[in-house]
Write a structure and sequence with these properties.
The protein is of the alpha+beta class and about 90 residues long. Helices cover about 25% and strands about 30% of the residues.
Length: about 90
């Protein structure tokens, strides 16, 4: 079970969103925050590619696994080593 302070932090971040669907997510381990809280967003740069929108869960995983490729397949999140030429551009 997540701590009430983490849930409050997520709720506060989600309330800052400008989108109609206000959702926040963060990677956790043993109920401890191990990444940055991320919200649904309209415009993002993910893996060097512009995307029109991104789910909070996807952004939290991309943020935590910064050197890996994160995608959704069959209702599950998949994390894979990036293919050559797909590294983040800084």
């Amino acid at each position: 079970m997540q701590s009430s302070s983490l849930i409050n932090d997520l709720a506060m971040e989600a309330s800052k969103s400008t989108l109609q669907q206000r959702v926040a997510a963060v990677a956790t381990l043993n109920s401890k925050k191990i990444g940055n809280i991320r919200c649904n967003s309209q415009r993002n740069l993910i893996g060097g590619c512009h995307v029109t929108s991104a789910h909070a869960e996807h952004l939290a995983l991309v943020d935590f696994f910064s050197n890996k490729e994160v995608s959704a397949r069959g209702g599950r999140w998949c994390v894979q080593k990036r293919k050559k030429g797909k590294d983040k551009k800084g």
